[in-house]
Design a protein that fits this description.
16% of the residues lie in helices and 42% in strands. With 145 residues, it is an alpha+beta fold.
């Protein structure tokens, strides 16, 4: 299990864009991570003022962050000089709404990893019910941090 502080050592994201709160399990090709959806998050002010729903694009971003953590936590890239960038998205589906108070469980599996390109399949769950899914592509790039 990895804490929020452990995650910040790998992902460059910070509030309000760090969307992984805890990693429950990670191995060489998969991860299970959590995102606690709080009604205090700023995007709920406008999405929607009278009926709060977590934007689908943020669910997809959480899947991308979890996918990058598979490599980062396994030290497959150097988090001090490299970053995983979101590069592609296919077959995205949103099946149910995510609301304040929900806990998003993100499960991602590596489908392919060659050179600096990572392809994953990820799903988000709330209470064991699938709420969204996607095939993602990430590219690992050298950066000056």
């Amino acid at each position: 299990m990895y804490s929020f502080e452990d995650i910040k050592k790998v992902l460059p994201h910070r509030y309000p864009f760090l969307l992984i709160d805890k990693v429950l399990q990670v191995n060489d090709d998969s991860i299970i991570a959590l995102k606690n959806v709080s009604g205090n998050e700023g995007y709920f002010n406008g999405h929607f003022p009278t009926f709060s729903v977590m934007p689908g694009v943020l669910q997809v971003e959480a899947m991308a962050q979890a996918s990058g953590l598979i490599l980062g936590l396994n030290q497959k890239f150097d988090a001090k000089s490299e970053m995983a960038f979101f590069a592609g998205l296919e077959e995205v589906k949103f099946k149910q709404m995510v609301k304040p108070g929900d806990q998003l469980t993100i499960k991602a599996n590596i489908q392919a990893y060659k050179r600096s390109v990572l392809k994953t399949y990820a799903e988000c769950f709330v209470d064991d019910q699938i709420v969204s899914l996607a095939h993602l592509v990430l590219v690992i790039k050298k950066v000056e941090i």
